[in-house]
Amino acid sequence: MISAHGFWLDGKVSQRREVTIACGADQVVRVQGDGVDVSAALRDLRIDPSLGTTRRMIRFPDGAAAETGDHEFLDALQRRLGRGRFFRAVHLWETSLPWACCALLLMLLAGFGFVRYAVPFLAAKAAYALPAATEELLGRETLQILDRLVLKPSKLRQERRRELTSLFASMTAAYPERRGWRLELRSGDAVGANAFALPAGIVVLTDRLVALAKSDQEIAGVLAHEIGHVRRRHALRHLMQNSATALLVATVTGDIVSATSLSATLPTVLIDAKYSRDFEQEADDAAVAYLKGRGIPVESYAEILTRLGAEHRKKQEKDSRFGELFADHPLIQERVKRVLAKGKR
Amino acid sequence: MALVTLTCPHCGFSKDRDDSLLPPAGTRVNCPRCGGQFPLAIGAPPAPVEDSLPPLAAAPAKRSWTLPFAFTGNAREYFGIWIVNTLLRVVTFGIYSPWAKVRKRRYFYGNTLLDEASFDYLADPLAILKGWFIAGLFLGLYSFASRTSPIASIVMMLVFAGLYPWVVVRSRIFNLRNSCYRNIRFSFKANYDEAYQVFLWWPLLVPLTLGLLSPYVVYLQKRYLVENCSYGTTTFRFDAAPRQYYLAFLPLLILVPLALAALVGMAFLLPKGGGNPVLLAVPMAVSAVVYLLTGLYVTTALSNLTWSSTSLGRHRFQSMLRLRDLAWIYLSNALAVLCTLGLLAPWGAVRLARYRLGKLTLSGVGRLDCYLAAENEAMGATGEELGDMLGFDLGL
Which of B110, B369, B371 sits opposite A51 (nearest CB)? Predict the structure, then answer.
């Protein structure tokens, strides 16, 4: 016979009566005291899982409940019932400080594994599975938005444009999946000397970059880099990876810091920088492979990279904004070193 | 099962009730209309009676009294609950989140005490999981649409705006029906017509009046949220006047035109081509601090006003939050959370709950144990989860 002191709440009126709750060997729970005398079979009752030191209820089938803070008694009842093992384990985990610290470590580990391996893997799978029509739409709309906001039509001569387009066509001729890939020539002060790959194989090259290049070999290096992005669908993967990490960060911080949104965006920005660095390295490798295959010295590509880096630094000094704080231009030197090392091998 | 007619001896209000839902005869109950108490007599209509009960330690029957709310949770305990449940949520890719949510809520409800009895959160995690999936599908659709086509995203935004009042009502119903005190549930009346009026049509008029209407709209919304709540069969009453809401908003109503005037003035006074950035940064920082403090002042005043205008039966709430306390708690919480990369968030949450509940009291005449339960039906959680994911704040 085990028993505990508690309160009876009949679920019909908000009265609280002081009672004794007892359970004998016959597995019948009896509640007595203050005009209450109720019994029920233990197997018909539900017992709240333990949670910190909060008082818990024994719930009766008719909606009544007995409240008690005697956790030993409640745990004994739960053991007799053979139920509530999962939350019993969760509770033990929650109440032990060393184990809670283990949970913290595990969470950091899980977060790292997720961001480093699971997200890129799943994003790549999804990017390759996306229907071509959707990707085409995405690429076209992105270019339209850029055209409206920052890009202007190219001012290059007609022949020069034809030369560059045929250079791009000759470079992509070897790839069977090249349908829809195209070179778009643009200008624009906001982007400066630049080249970038959009979804669906749209490569944008600015007049300023064409002017900066000392030879078409240098432009070929840049284009090979962008084609590397295109072939590995980096634009789409980047988009998906960033959405996934934003979702993860929101899941973890969602219930904590709605007031300080900076702490939610900062990790996303840092993770994003890491992702774009990985993609740049992959594209650089593709450029090096192309140049070596054609017998073009890798140094030409390294030189235009250096020049681009200097150009961006100048631009940054001219109109420094907070937005540039996390830009990846300082990484250019590292990239140049890497390209040269790869070229020698 | 048989229907029994109950009549209040004080105001004559009567209602038919299923006898299986009633406590034994002789139990003292509250009239849902006037709040008067009388002993339950099944069969014959009861004669008017005088209280003849032994006085209760905490809440004497006849004298008027004031009871504080209290929060008994502590940061050490909640840290464990928070970290373990967040981990389980991450490793199950979010599937566990309904269980985590119920556990965290149960901790806060279970540690909120009034007259030595705690509150209780009864939501079924499986119902929440269903709602979570539907709401997630909806949001996924929205984010996909907004990334692929601007027109689709505008359409989806209109759909969301149209859904907002529905989400408010459903979320409120779900949360109140699953909240419980002394084993009697709260409830919320599904009054969709009025919800669309106060959460959609009235707010649409606010820009037309340059914001001057917004205190009135807030008043309407709070009144709607309070007046449709019940504890058991007893409905909450709300007796603030719109004038009081204008008073609470006064600093903001004065400050916004002032700030606009200052901005225009600065634009004229500044030399062409910028000027010293330090000279610019000082007024910017000052105005940011003033703006934050004013915002906090208004939310504090609104919270106090709304609670203090709410009553239940013969019992009235009173909230006495102070601006400087709240400002300090928010500031130190934000700093602590940022500096520890979120690790002190549970501490912050417990601290805030302890302060807020410590400043809330219930006072009145008559005992707290005479409220009758109402019939209840189960309710889906889609609205609640959608509201949760979109970050709607529906607190009073």
Answer: B110
Instruction: Report residue A182: phi and psi, to 5°.
Output: -155, 160
Structure tokens at A88: 């019993």
Nearest to B107 among A9, A54, A63 (CB): A54
Instruction: Kindly report the pTM of this predicted structure.
Output: 0.73
Please indicate if any CB of chain B lies within 8 Å of the CB of A10: yes
pLDDT tens-digit series, residues A71-84 = 999 999 998 888 88
Please check the confidence at residue B50 and state whether its pLDDT lies above 80: no
Largest Cα–Cα separation, chain B? 88
Of B363, B264, B241, B380, give the one whose Cα is nearest residue B312: B363
Contact A9 B73 (CB under 8 A): no
Q: Could you report the per-residue pLDDT of A273-320, keeping only the tens digit for each?
A: 777 888 888 899 999 999 888 888 888 899 998 888 888 777 766 654
Q: Which two tokens stand for residue A305?
A: 């990279």
Is residue A63 a contact partner of residue A35, using CB atoms and an 8 Å limit?
no
Sketch the domain layout of chain A as residue ranges. 2-95, 130-344
pLDDT single digits (tens) A317-331? 665 444 444 444 457
- What number of CA atoms fall less than 13 Å from residue B215's CA on the CB side? 20
A272, two tokens: 């994003």
Among B109, B114, B136, B176, which residue's Cα sits nearest to residue B394?
Answer: B176
Backbone angles phi and psi of A285, in degrees to 5: -60, -40
| Cα-based angle B135, A272, A313 (whole degrees, multiple of 5) | 145
ipTM > 0.85 for the complex = no
Is B340 near chain A, with CB under 8 Å? no
Q: How far apart are CA A252 and CA B144, in angstroms?
A: 22
Residue A233 CA, distance from chain mean position: 17
Task: Find residue A33's DSSP bridge partners.
Answer: A36
Question: In Å, how far from its chain's centre is CA B141?
Answer: 29
Angle, vertex CA B308, rays to CA B307 and CA B309, nearest 5: 90
Domain made up of A2-95: CATH architecture? Roll (2.30)
At B231, which helix (H) or strand (E)? strand B229-231
Please answer yes or no on whether B80 and A239 come within 8 Å at the CB atom.
no
Q: Which two tokens stand for residue B73?
A: 């949770």
pLDDT tens digits for range B193-242: 999 999 999 999 988 888 889 999 999 999 999 999 999 889 999 999 99
Separation between Cα atoms, residue B78 and residue B346, nearest integer Å: 6
Dist CA A341 CA A60 (whole Å): 75
Torsions phi, psi for B361 (to 5 deg): -130, 165
